[in-house]
Specification:
about 800 residues; mainly beta; 3 helices; 44 strands
């Protein structure tokens, strides 16, 4: 009888424990009159008798498991009139703690501890502050859908120590880094997270269930924060930069070596408790990493990643509705006007980027959940230098002075739901056309956050010599939480909808249907930690006149194993389709049926040496066209300061068929072979958590070797081309880049950076068969070399005023 009673009590205790992990945890706020010293040594008297947050719960690899006592985490919190303070002890074997040194806003191969704060306790928005065991800071902003914005930066203090019991961390987060209300008594959303790198264990103080959609909405509570007032949030970041650029133009009257000196400033101002103004005046983006340019044989433009911090930090409101492609501002404008050039003119220097004169963001959210975002940027006109037949040179304006605007209203609703209005507006000086796009969006979740429905309608309006308007809508609903998830999506755009003046949009005139099904296993077994699987269907028609475009199926599975390696296998099938874009003249092309399979292998990245890659195979029915992709990467970490990475990619295509050229209004296609080789090498040497070097070298080579030409018939099929063989249709494209950057954070928020860049690009209409010949060719081609130095100094107005009020005594 006693045995059965014991078993019953054990089962009952286990059930209680399983239920406890889903219960929201709470921590009482404690005010301090003594400020702790931020040194990572937990011996300040103010930490005594402060409540401890412990018994963290695993997210991975075993969701719901309580951390063991010998690797437990203990955290304490204090606050005063100026900041929030954190005490963290992470018990562990000190010899096993991972502490790779990397640059700020990176984690690397290191253990970390973090605090996530939601001062308005709306369960939709928060800020995360991370510190690695090497003392490296990482901060991020979180939005209601769980997206992490690592480009958000704040100025705060931290320190770590590794001792015989594991490692410790202290943080001081000033109120100037946060937004919160002025209420006398407040409750803040709160969570803590810890990662043990070598075992890939990540735990949270308040359990984050992977089967539940969202992250911030699964937070704990910091109770009874009393009598704190939001400070004046005002900071200035003036900068100066100097550039030396060398390009061997070797033409009379044009200098091979040029130099310039820049100066400007970033301003951040807290308009009130909730809203912040960010402004950049005469910004300098010359040290941003180079775009990874490729040979594009498609009828659509390539979308590049945004690397300019001002356009990536705190832009979650402006990204609503996918109407904002920030590289339109200065970097990749849509509008070019070459009407001022004559047929006999020779282009001497074509400006491809417009200078950003200034940009401003105002964003925030009221106490009633209304998010407001206002964005404005102005770019200077672009001038192209041309030379006429008589040798006279002149400048032709190819893009006018342009003003870019976004306005967003985003109302938070119950159950992490929202309703949003977005408007983008592009105004150009002179006779160039203007563009306006508006959208109404909604996102609704049920009370248990299991089912959802979202969607919206959009309208574009272009006004110039002629006007046009178009519209689009999308509707999506499904199940987003649990092991089994599914969704259905319908998207529509008429043949005049065009948001591409400020957004990225390849084509319109479609009615798409998509159905997605997924099944995830989060509970580990004896041989795996996690399994994910999916099955997706896609069907597309043109909106006008409604004819068929495409049908495809994709399926796959992902497994993470006990040794922390993972693999993914997926396959796809696309039926014969009507391609209305490949011919570039409005004709339909009967694109062939194709299918493919891919295998991806990823290693345990905690290992000092790790490698992985993928193999992909795709086949077209026409001419049995085949495409292979072999990708291999390896990383070597010699020590905590020095690490290397090498990526190798080889992508040969055989007997593929696509558009090659045009003769009049006739589309000429070709059967061709293509090889693409991309190799990149990166290295970092980090001297400390405030100083380090990074270098990236990339060589990309891609060609096209035409073998046979065809004429596209009116019915969309191909027939042999009987005319003279088209010339100038082969391609041989090479890009070579070196980006070497040194950064030193010499004071909080202040940096000195030195950047060296080397760039070369060749585009030829003949091909060179061997890789080494292409590499020799690009290395011996004219190189654009630049060396820049930039100093940015952070000035906090409150600290400056305090120094003036209490001058140093001599």
């Amino acid at each position: 009888m006693l045995r059965y009673l014991t078993l019953f009590l054990i089962c009952f205790y286990s059930i209680c424990q399983a239920q406890d992990v889903h219960k929201q945890r709470q921590l009482n706020a404690v005010r301090t009159s003594a400020t702790p010293k931020i040194d990572g040594i937990l011996d300040d008297a103010c930490w005594v008798d402060v409540p401890i947050a412990t018994d963290f719960i695993e997210l991975r690899p075993t969701p719901g498991r309580i951390e063991p006592k010998n690797k437990r985490t203990e955290i304490k919190m204090l606050y005063d009139d100026v900041a929030v303070y954190f005490y963290a002890r992470m018990f562990d074997n000190p010899d096993s703690v991972s502490h790779e040194l990397v640059s700020r806003d990176n984690i690397g191969t290191a253990d970390f501890i973090s605090v996530i704060l939601d001062p308005f306790y709306d369960k939709m928005n928060g800020n995360g502050f991370f510190v690695t065991a090497a003392g490296v800071q990482f901060d991020a902003k979180y939005s209601q859908v769980g997206d992490e914005d690592p480009n958000w930066n704040a100025v705060w203090e931290s320190a770590v120590k590794i001792d015989k019991e594991g490692w410790t961390c202290e943080m001081k987060i000033p109120y100037s880094a946060l937004r919160f209300s002025g209420k006398d008594i407040q409750n803040w959303g709160l969570n803590f997270s810890r990662r043990i790198q070598r075992t890939n264990v990540q735990t949270f103080w308040n359990f984050v269930d992977p089967k539940v959609n969202g992250f911030i909405n699964q937070e704990g509570l910091w109770m009874d924060v009393k009598d704190i007032k939001p400070p004046l949030r005002l900071s200035f970041s003036p900068y100066v930069s100097a550039y030396i650029n060398h390009y061997p133009v070797n033409q009379p009257g044009i200098k091979n070596t040029t130099s310039r000196f820049n100066g400007g400033m970033d301003v951040k101002y807290g308009i009130n408790n909730s809203f912040t103004l960010d402004m950049t005046l005469v910004p300098d983006f010359g040290q941003v990493q180079s775009d990874n340019r490729i040979l594009n044989l498609t009828p659509f433009e390539v979308k590049f990643n945004e690397n300019r911090q001002f356009f990536t930090e705190g832009t979650e409101l402006f990204n609503k509705g996918d109407l904002f492609y920030s590289k339109r501002i200065g970097s990749i404008p849509k509008y070019y006007n070459y009407s001022g050039l004559n047929s006999s003119d020779k282009v001497i220097k074509d400006q491809t980027e417009a200078k950003v004169l200034n940009a401003t963001k105002i964003s925030g959210r009221t106490a009633k959940g209304l998010g407001i975002g206002i964005f404005n940027a102005i770019t200077n006109s672009m001038q192209t230098e041309v030379e006429d037949a008589q040798g006279n040179s002149r400048n032709v304006e190819t893009q006018p002075l342009t003003n870019y605007n976004i306005f967003v209203l985003d109302q938070s609703l119950k159950n992490n739901s929202s309703a949003t209005f977005v408007n983008t507006n592009v105004l150009r000086q002179g006779s160039a056309y203007d563009a306006n796009v508006s959208a109404l969006l909604f996102s609704l979740n049920d009370k248990k956050n299991i089912y959802f429905v979202n969607g919206g309608g959009k309208m574009s309006y272009l006004r110039g010599a002629t006007t046009s308007s178009g519209y689009s809508y999308n509707l999506k609903f499904g199940k987003q939480s649990g092991n089994f998830t599914w969704s259905y999506l319908q998207q529509y755009a008429d043949n005049k909808f065009d948001p591409s003046d400020m957004g990225f949009f390849t084509n319109n005139n479609f009615l798409d249907q998509r159905a997605n099904f997924g099944y995830q296993v989060y509970k580990p077994s004896s041989w795996y930690n996690q399994i994910q699987s999916w099955l997706n269907f896609a069907y597309s028609r043109r909106a006008i006149p409604g004819d068929y475009q495409s049908f495809g199926i994709e399926t796959g599975a992902y497994v993470q194993y006990k040794n922390l390696w993972s693999s993914e296998l997926n396959g796809n099938y696309e039926a014969k389709r009507n391609d209305f874009y490949e011919a570039r003249n409005g004709q339909v092309y009967k694109a062939p049926e194709n299918y493919g399979v891919a295998l991806y292998i990823n290693p345990n990245r905690a290992k000092a040496y790790n490698f992985g890659g993928n193999i992909r195979y795709q086949e077209q029915q026409l001419f049995k066209g085949r495409s292979y992709n072999f990708f291999f990467f390896q990383n070597l970490r010699l020590n905590d300061k020095l690490a290397f990475g090498l990526d190798l990619s080889f992508n040969p295509n055989y007997n593929y068929v696509n558009w090659a050229t045009a003769q009049g209004n006739q589309a000429i296609f070709s059967r061709y072979d293509r090889r693409t080789v991309e190799n990149s090498f990166d290295a970092k040497y980090t001297l400390s958590n405030l100083m380090g070097f990074t270098v990236v070298l990339r060589h990309y080579w891609s060609d096209r070797r035409n073998k046979e030409f065809f004429l596209l018939k009116p019915d969309g099929n191909l027939t042999n081309y009987e005319g003279a063989t088209p010339t100038g249709t082969d391609r041989n494209y090479n890009v070579f880049n070196i980006d070497l950057i040194y950064t030193w954070q010499f004071a909080p928020g202040s940096t000195l950076s030195v950047s060296y860049k080397d760039a070369a690009e060749t585009y030829e209409t003949f091909y060179t068969q061997r890789y080494n010949r292409n590499l020799d060719g690009i290395l011996s081609s004219p190189q654009n070399n630049s060396l820049s130095v930039k100093v940015l100094y952070y000035v906090d107005y409150l600290s400056l005023r305090k120094k003036k009020t209490h001058p140093a005594k001599i």
